[in-house]
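Following up on my earlier message about NDP. Here are the inputs again, as you asked, copied directly from the submission form:
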Amino acid sequence: MDSLRGRFPGEPEYLQAVEEVVGSIADVYDRYPAFDAQNLLERLCIPDRVFTFRVSWVDDHGKVRNNMGYRIQHCNAIGPYKGGIRFHSSVNLSILKFLAFEQTFKNSLTTLAMGGAKGGSDFSPRGKSDMEIMRFCQAFVTELWRNIGPDTDVPAGDIGVGGREVGYMYGWYKKMAREFTGTFTGKGIDFGGSLMRPEATGYGNVYFLLNMLATRGISLEGKRVAISGSGNVALYTAQKLLSLGAKVVSMSDSDGSVVIADGLTADDFEEIFELKTMYRGRISEFAERHPDRCVYYRRERPWRHVAADIAMPSATQNELDGDDARALLAAGVIAVSEGANMPSTPEAIREFQAARILYAPGKAANAGGVAVSGLEMAQNAQKVSWTAEEVDAKLRDIMADIHAQCLKYGTGTDGYVNYVKGANTAGFLKVARAMMAQGVI
Ligand code: NDP
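Thanks, got it. Here's what our run produced:
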């Protein structure tokens, strides 16, 4: 860690993600001296390569705009590089390096053949017209297309990149490469996308939660669940929870949070879904329409305002800190299952684990999204389409398998399951064995 801190001093999120993994796999790493003889851990922590480029595009007023673009190809020991693209004003090298690093372990856990990668830009789609989004996506892919491909590197969506953006990027990729292959996942259903891909991360997180609750014989029905975010992951998490009889008591976006003490009704959910997906509206608009049932907290996260049994942070990294964790625990929270990547700070994780509640890190709990991306790659390669039921069944099996791996490597002598340790160890061992077999490259 000291060596990495010295070499990458301005990259706090990257160092935070690495420190969490290194700390939790130290004992298993030390058990195999051959790993260290090949300096394997350092090789695994530093990305294979990083592309950085300027993306110039023309806005609707004829003004030339410049953004930064990145692709981190972290590790392809067990399969082609694979990971989403994020468009958000906060994007920088540190955030993408942390995401690519985490992706490597997550993809390993899915049991599918996918390496780890991530990319993105500090471009914000918010307030941009469709044509501006399209021109930006085309300019972004013009820089990237030579370095990606169905067996090389397969991007997908993430914050700010949904079906519309993937469609524009894939279209331009196809034109530049003159091939129709599964180089992106999260594509539209009519051109190679998989059924259930939009739902997969949120549904998968709920499946993981069900597996965790089962270890303590707890039922989800009637439980109050606090969600943050109102994007792809948060919406489908809420949808699945409602279908299973749980109560969704909060949602949020980057402007603020709405708390609905009695829980969202099915009609409320439809209203929010439409507001967010069709009109790209704000969660405050929903709160304004239902002042009798909702409380809106401007510029605040939900955690300190909500009475919940379960928390599912599904917005962004470091959105739940030590104070938030203590507030949730004081309110009686029994489980936290992360939809976002690294939403809980290290202090928050320590609080959850010290309280011995069920706590699942994103790299295990939100792996359903990339798992179904892997299934999309498999369908594209075979030029077939599976039904929603087939994909959902495979997703359930994969989440159960990831949960089982966490139990195998994370169960302590007192019976408490440290899901961080379990996920990191299982993900690490597969990648490490592959790296050892392939030599120093
Ligand atoms: P979306 O862009 O669809 O939604 C993101 C949501 O989080 C929006 O409600 C957004 O609000 C909010 N948000 C984003 N940044 C911030 C911030 N800095 N502070 C507060 N709220 C914020 O993204 P996704 O739902 O796809 O992604 C959410 C999380 O899940 C991310 O951590 C992502 O990496 C992770 N993830 C996503 C997967 C996927 O399949 N999409 C797979 C695995 C993990 P606003 O609209 O105001 O920006």
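One observation from looking it over: The mean pLDDT is 97. Hope that helps, and feel free to reply on this thread.
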